[in-house]
Automatic annotation (TrEMBL):
PANTHER family from the UniProt entry: ELONGATION FACTOR TU-RELATED (PTHR43721), SELENOCYSTEINE-SPECIFIC ELONGATION FACTOR (PTHR43721:SF11)
Signal peptide start-end: none
A Pfam family this chain is assigned to: GTP_EFTU
SUPFAM superfamilies documented for this protein: P-loop containing nucleoside triphosphate hydrolases (SSF52540), Translation proteins (SSF50447)
Ranges in coiled-coil conformation: none
Domain Tr-type G: 2-77
Protein name: Tr-type G domain-containing protein
GO molecular function terms attached to this record: GTP binding; GTPase activity; translation elongation factor activity
Gene3D superfamilies named in the record: P-loop containing nucleotide triphosphate hydrolases, Translation factors
GO biological process, one term: selenocysteine incorporation
Length: 121
């Protein structure tokens, strides 16, 4: 089981409930400290260490004592990371046709007649 904890909030009621269910239904646990990219860079490691100790104490009296605790950022990069790619145009105006969307499919397939949803950019 992966127990994902927001490092800026710590253990919440729902997290504790998941831990109780996990003790019944799961054999192994990995604690994921998420959102470390939201921590100030100068205080990041201290905050991670503090939350790691809190989680170790929480797990101390469970069957998950000693479970790995891994800090992560689900968002690629961090607030200090520059954008790695420049935005690319994905539409052009073709006379008589209107706006035509273009792009590259990175995974999966699309066929003529398929509906495509374009999320806000």
């Amino acid at each position: 089981m992966m127990l994902v904890i927001d490092v800026t909030k710590g253990m919440q009621t729902q997290s504790a409930e998941c831990l109780v269910i996990g003790q019944i239904a799961c054999q192994k646990l990995v604690v994921v400290l998420n959102k470390i990219d939201l921590l100030a860079e100068g205080k990041r490691q201290a905050a991670i260490d503090k939350m790691t100790k809190k989680m170790q104490k929480t797990l101390e009296n469970t069957k998950f004592r000693g479970a790995p605790i891994i800090p992560v950022a689900a968002k690629p990069g961090g607030p200090e990371a520059p954008e790695t790619e420049a935005p690319q145009g994905i539409s052009e105006l073709i006379e008589g046709q209107g706006t035509v969307m273009t792009g590259t499919i990175l995974s999966g397939t699309i066929s003529l007649g398929d509906s495509v949803e374009i999320p806000a950019l």
